[in-house]
Amino acid sequence: MTNPKKIINFESAQKLVTRIAGEDAMRVIRIYEKKKANVTDEELAKKMRLKVTEVRTILNRLHYRGVALYQKSKNSKTGWYSYTWVVKSKRIAELLLEELGENLEKLESKQQIQSNYGLFSCKGLCETIPFEVAAEYRFKCPECGKAMNAVDTKKALKKTEQTLQNLRDEISAIQKSI
Length: 178
Ligand SMILES: [Zn+2]
Known about the structure:
Blueprint: H1 11-21, H2 25-35, E1 39-40, H3 41-48, H4 52-64, E2 68-74, E3 81-87, H5 89-116, E4 119-121, E5 129-130, H6 131-136, E6 149-150, H7 154-177
Antiparallel strand pairs: 1-3, 2-3, 4-5, 4-6
The structure holds zinc ion (ZN).
């Protein structure tokens, strides 16, 4: 039996991490995954050849979303505080599932619209609207005024259903990674 794919190896997870904490955030996550231990921000900065302030910015952004947590400890000799950080990759999965769940809802309603209504559009790039709305406008595009015709939604519906299937597969793979 193969192990389930790790959450940080999902492209969508990597994108999410980069979006919430910047270009170098995945490097931070990978260092923690490798070490499986707590690392201080100074150690991280050295490893990554970044300034400590840059590493702290990344960690603070991750902390804001609950992905990185820290422990504060006082050095009894110097009286200085040091911050030891730990990364919760499970939290990345949670954030990702939240986001994908929203996408799923949107796609499901799109699928419903595409399968339940006749859709109408003009020949331009204006919005596609359901039959009832198009009828209210007497089949003249509310945006550009040109005539509106029925759209063949079969192709679009097929595409939506394929996207939905891929999304459901990904969600279940992510759930297995937790
Ligand atoms: Zn139009």
